Amino acid sequence: MSKPTIVLVPGCWYPVATFDKLVSALTSRGYKAVVVSLPSSTSGSRDASFLDDITAVRRCIEAETTLGHDVVVAAHSYGGLPAHSGSKGLTLGSPEPCSQPGKVIGFVLMASGFTQTGMAFLDPTGGIPPPQWKANTDTGFAELVVDPVDMFFHDLPAEEGRMWADKLGKQSLKALAEGGEHAYGSWAEVPNYYIVTKQDHGLPPAMQKMIIGMAGDADVTVRELDTSHSPMLSMPAETADIIVQAATEFQAKKSN
Length: 256
Description:
- By secondary structure, the chain is α/β, with parallel strands linked by helices.
- The chain has helices spanning 20-28, 39-42, 50-65, 80-86, 148-152, 158-167, 173-177, 205-213, 231-234, 236-255; strands at 5-9, 33-35, 71-76, 104-110, 133-136, 141-144, 171-172, 192-197, 220-225.
- The chain has a single domain, classed as 3-Layer(aba) Sandwich (Rossmann fold).
- Helix content is 35%, strand content 17%.
- The strands form two sheets. The protein has a six-stranded parallel beta sheet, sandwiched between helices.
- The model has no long low-confidence stretch (mean pLDDT 97).
């Protein structure tokens, strides 16, 4: 049985390069890994939408499934929303007919959430952003109001943490506040892994565990890493090991 492709979906502000270490670790374990470039955080455009992000994810998935390759989608933070929504109709358990020979066989969430069908990122809080950032309606971007090193990279060497903070992109506010009609919770159709980041200052572990509880009776396996919000940078080998374990289990469940 061939190994599934790992499609990696970044969170808000994060450039594709923050996944280089994880891609290398997965490749060394014999897996093909592809990182999605989300327009809302990499294009620099205030007009980049949630649907644009969904489309980018879907294109990466379909590039594999049309070739008959199964896919495991590993999403970080906000990336869970376009990951789940972009997998609509492509999962192994989808209620919709799927003509693709390959399927999305499972998700790995890293300090992320379980997308609610019909809800944009900010809908659950009534459009109010978390205290770490503000919605600048003049610029059209979500702007951090805390030290990004402390929020995202505090467990990295100081110089490396500052380097990544300087590389963070502009995050389109439109993608976070609008587009709920395109959101879809495909995570309920396949098994899931959730990586709790125990030192997370961006999404505290207590909140992550509350999010996991909201998944109800869904098939969710929980693993923990003693990292900041960026396990792909501070513990890439350990993160890769969990993704590989998840992919192996997802394949086994598909065969049963």
